[in-house]
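Troubleshooting: if your tokenizer reports a length mismatch, compare your output against this known-good record of 339 residues.
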Amino acid sequence: MRSMTDEGNAGERNNATRAVRTAGMHLPVLTEEVLSFFEPAPGFRCLDATLGLGGHSEALLRKARAAGVPDVQVLGIDRDAESLALAQIRLEDFSPAVHFRHNLFSECAGVLAGLGWEGADFVLADLGVSSLQLDCPERGFSMQADAPPDMRMDRSRGKSAADLINSLSTQDLRGIIRNCGEDPLAGRIAGAISAARDKGRIRSARDLAGVVAGAYPPGRRAAARRHPAVRTFQALRMTVNDEIDELRRFLRAATGLLRPGGRLLVIAFHSLEDRAVKHFFREQAAKCDYPRNVPDSACAREATLRILTAKPVRPGAAERAANRRAASARLRVAELPGA
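Known-good structure output:
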């Protein structure tokens, strides 16, 4: 007979399993496109640097099994402990081929070393905020949330978006919204936020979204194709989580982990991320830093990576129709030569 504790644990597991199936983020973007660059071989080591709910990892492991390569292993890293816990349930059928770590993805080199891995053959990073985070009101990512705008991917560390809103000067807020949100009305928005917070009118993410919308001139607000606060929320989230600098650190670390023939795949969802990946790949694919008129024989540095996607790979019409959050996804892939 099962004890009450056993029944309670079973209930928690069932609830978590339902969360995996119904949270809305169990559909990883560009899965078929990612799989097209995955050619499993015996002894393969894969790094899913932004594990989320494990959808991409599950697809990789299923392809490896179908190809008759059962010894492929996956290391899943995520800074969001809640997502990591759900991914463990989703991928339990592949145990012990999957390893889970609660880390920043820029810390991947140390995590691999701790596992005793000498490198990786396939590295994937799916950037940005997850549907689980967006759909969880208390996380404060959504513009509809009645909770304070938290926006931390790892709630165990760092300042929240609410902390920034309540502590930064109007000028600093303007810089964040302009640089990370690329909103031309950054000055008006920052001024409106400062005025509203001083009057205690920003208590929730929904309040913040309303303040930003109110900063837009009526004509521009009516003509906007998306909510006027989208870029401000993006800017605050990226600042809270240090996303661009974290991405740059990850790209350098991940490139150093690739084994000969190893591939690095990055899925970005907006121009700042995609631009950082594009520039990094181009720098690593260049033979040297000398001007173009210097003969190749004078170059001191060989190319580190070979770019496999001349242009970013975008979702097809069917995927965009099935998952509206996939519409802005862009996949870039590079390979370490020498296999």
